[in-house]
Amino acid sequence: MGGGGPGLAADGPGGAPVCSAKGCRAAAVWVLAWNNPKLHTPDRRKTWLACEEHREQLSQFLGVRGFLKDVVPLAEWSEQPPE
Asked: Smallest Cα–Cα separation from 66: which of 37, 42, 46?
């Protein structure tokens, strides 16, 4: 699955961001910010992108492991200045 930060994966038509779910090529509309506390500092955020269909599935996958930190619409995430 994808990862990134301000430079989110842009693999779709015209360079549009696509969903990180395996085999999905749908346009991403959500950013799932996460980190693995065993590997990353508390302020570090990795990202997966999600389409409407896969947002809940990917959120549950990360959430059950205690990795999910935030779910933000892609448009809002893109407007945030890099840390």
From this structure: 37
CA 26-30-8 angle, 5° bins: 80
CA distance 11 to 48: 13
Q: CA-based angle 61:67:72, to the nearest 5? A: 85
**Three-state DSSP class for residue 57:** helix
pTM across the whole model: 0.79
Look up residue 64 and give its amino acid. V
Q: How confident is the model at residue 2 (pLDDT cuts 50, 70, 90)?
A: very low
- Res. 8: pLDDT tops 70: no
CB-count exposure of residue 29 (10 Å: 0-12, 13-18, 19+): middle
